[in-house]
């Protein structure tokens, strides 16, 4: 587990633990903000993209990757970490940009995506004129900067287009860009974004690698052990002197319920509690800090959830039952809304 930090601060969890007593509160808070907590799908996604990068120069048509997952599944974090692995190089004679990360905004179109990608390469690019001209310029620039991977993030926005024609054009443009530039394109978004492939059979063939990030399960002893191990690693990575042992039977089910088993929400919860603890001089986590972090970092996403850290106990079975009940109520509410529209 590594940390992207300024010079002078530890770069690994092990180094941090060894010099923790020498760090100031400000340095510890900086560490808590910057430390990347363990994401189980990192290696699978990184390896899949890297394999495409290696084989695509020898393929007639490049292979591409789709990564799907619900909100806070870790998609954007993975994208940013992949960019950090292959950073931009601005040299005296040339610029090299092996990986480009583009955030898709609503409403998307082939023109806006093309212009965003051009701007990511050079802020001085002339963005006037038709999309065809921009696409030709983009392909030339991608070759100039030795680009190998373009990540389009939040592509569920494609699904929000009310006009099917616009989505068809988007699908066709992405397919054409991958072929013309011969680069690996990675699409990241909510699961419903995968419907884009039904609009263009050729695009679908370009994306044989489809990784679906799933929340942790918690319905068996092995599943609980896997989630608890994640919590152990996460707590060890945080710059606090003493462990609360958040993987314990009294704490772990509450974190599972609070996060719905989603790594992103669990990370936000633990990181937020750590920072609040450091700010008030605490040397370890507590249920009080976790309760505060739940209200500050999780509540806005799950309005109907009870704060599990205000309960004395919560078993794995109770956590799963509460999550299932909340999902049923949410689904019923969505159905009622659709019926009203009809």
| CATH level-two architecture of the largest domain | 3-Layer(aba) Sandwich
How many domains? The number is 2
| Unreliable residue runs | 1-6
| Molecular shape | globular
Give the overall pLDDT as a whole number: 89
What fold name stands as the CATH topology of the largest domain? Rossmann fold
Q: Under the CATH scheme, which class of the largest domain? A: Alpha Beta
- Within CATH, the superfamily of the largest domain carries the name P-loop containing nucleotide triphosphate hydrolases
Number of contiguous helices: 13
Main sheet, how many strands, which sense, barrel? Answer: 5 strands, parallel
**Helix/sheet category:** alpha/beta
Beta fraction = 5-15%
Radius of gyration (CA) equals: 22 Å
Series of H and E elements: HHHEHEEEHHEHEHEHHHHH
**Approximate helicity band:** 40-55%
Largest sheet: spatial strand order: 4-5-6-1-7
**What is the strand tally?**
7
> What is the CA–CA distance across the termini?
51 Å
What does this structure look like?
It is a single chain. This protein is 50% helix and 9% strand. By secondary structure, it is an alpha/beta fold. The protein has two domains: 42-213, P-loop containing nucleotide triphosphate hydrolases (Rossmann fold), CATH 3.40.50.300; 217-330, no CATH class. The protein has a five-stranded parallel β-sheet with strand order 4-5-6-1-7, sandwiched between helices. Strands 2-3 form a two-stranded antiparallel ribbon. β5 (149-153), α7 and β6 form a beta-alpha-beta unit. The longest helix is centred in the last third of the chain and has 26 residues, at 316-341. It starts with 12 loop residues before the first helix and ends with a helix.
